[in-house]
Amino acid sequence: MRERKEADAPRLDAAALGAELGERATLVQFSSAFCQPCRATRRVLADVAGMVDGVAHVEIDAEARLGLVRSLDITATPTVLVLDAAGRVVRRAEGEPRRAHVIAALGAAVDTP
Asked: How many helices (H) and strands (E) does the chain have?
C-alpha cells in the first residue's frame, strides 16, 4: 500500500462515502460488478474491520459513483483507500490486498496524529 503525504492527502466524509466513517479508521473499497478480485477483497476487508474495534469497511460501486472515482483518480478495481479517523487518505492500494498489508496500513492510519 502506498502512503500519501499529509499535504496532498484528500479527505472524505460520510456524505462523500454514503456511509459513516469508522471511529478509528475506515477501509474504503472501490469495486465493480463483475470483478472477481473485488469479492476476495470484500472478504479480507470485512474480516479485518471485524477484528479491529472502531474500524469500518465501506464498499463503493465504482460505476455508480463516477464523480467520486474521477476525483480520487481511481483507475482500477479493486482499489482500497485507508482513511484515518478524520477521513484523510493515508494509504492506497490497487488489486487484491493481503490481510497482513491491510493490518499494517490500519496501524499507520490509527497512529496518524
From this structure: 4, 5
